[in-house]
Amino acid sequence: METQERMEREINLLELFWNILLGWRQIICFGLLFAVLLGSVKYVRDTRAYQAAQNMDQEQTEEALTEEELEQVAEAKELIAQMAEYENYMEESAWMQIDPYREARLTLQYYVKSDYVINYTRDNVRDYTGDVINAYSNYAASGEMSSEIIKEAGLSISQEDFSELRSVDMDNTTLVITIAYPKEEQLESIGESVKKQISKKESEIQQIGAHQLILLGESQDFVVDKDLIDRKGVIFDTITRLQNQLNNLKTNMTEPQLNLLKNDKEEDSEEKEENLIPTPGFSVKYAVLGAIFGVFLVCIWIVCKMLFTARLQNSEEIRSLYGMRLLGEIEVPSKQSRFLPGVDAKLLAVKDRRRKKLSPDQQIKMVSANIALSCKQQGMDHIYLTGSEYEKADKNVLESLKQELMAQGVQIQEGGNIFYDAESLKQGTAIGNLLFVEQIGQSIYDEISNELNLAREQKSNILGIVVFV
Question: Which of these, 37, 40, 227, 424, is most buried using a 10 Å CB contact count?
Fold first, then answer.
């Protein structure tokens, strides 16, 4: 009998289409990857070009100006920076957010009762009451107490802002702590935190001299804050003065000076829009092109993989390439947990919509019945299971197939690839009846051809091939 020569594979375009469609995960991943990649590359290049153009324009402008004109521009920039600082302070300072004509204010008044007593019959000891008052005053005005109050009361301000909202006054025996806050409902929690921190500090300050700290009063009122009114007025006047100085400078500036001052920011956009380089941004156009390229690349990869693969692609190739009998195919459960497996199930349902779907158990029973009938027709009851990648076949499916065959009176013996395993070759040749088990994506074309040719050379009877898919 002649050996089986390797045949040229015919590519099924419909099968190629479904392979591409079932590769939707790679298509989406590479589409997104190249969309971000190409869009980012375009953004980086545009940003570099934009910055280079800006630097070039600025250098050319500076070279065209005299030293006196450059000094005027520097002075104008300084004025703009000062105005920005004042404006940021007005917007961000918690004190500036308070309505000065209705300021919510918390006042805590403490009295220090000193244990100091003058003894005229002995040497006089210096009165330490003033030191105690100073210690309490310094602590109340410290950042240590501020940070504890901010943390405990849950305030969304900095220590610098809190220092503007708090004032501490004292005399010989009295300490007055005043705190204002934009949200009046939080003053109560602030007051509780202040009392708690002062109370903790009392035990430490006892080291200066024995005394008692007594809370004389606690009040929460709405007042008119003249200091805040004056402060806001000074800032507004300062900003106005700086703006007038800037306007006067701009009046005497030339067009190149104004362009340099604006640093290429659009102020007269309608007049200069055509001469300005567009501000760089993420390009949707290049992102779409990148996605298309990524999808195209994946599709080409799937096509090349199918064209140049060395492994079995579908069951029908058993007939078309080797002219062998296909005794059936059995679906092997996937061991990998894939992302959104339901999408694959839907696609496969559409692909196989014209074919009746059998369960794995039904597939095993059908294949076993087909094998058993073939054995009966040829008067054999003992077969040898082998395959080019038999050792990699699913053990559970193989075991189910063997159990079903034995239940139908067929004796089973199995082994490895007869082309490489001498013992398997001897056993298979001795039995004489071979049943090959091959696997989609695992079995190699040349290996299948080698074992079939070897079986024919040894005059073995090839019952057919079962394919695991």
Answer: 424
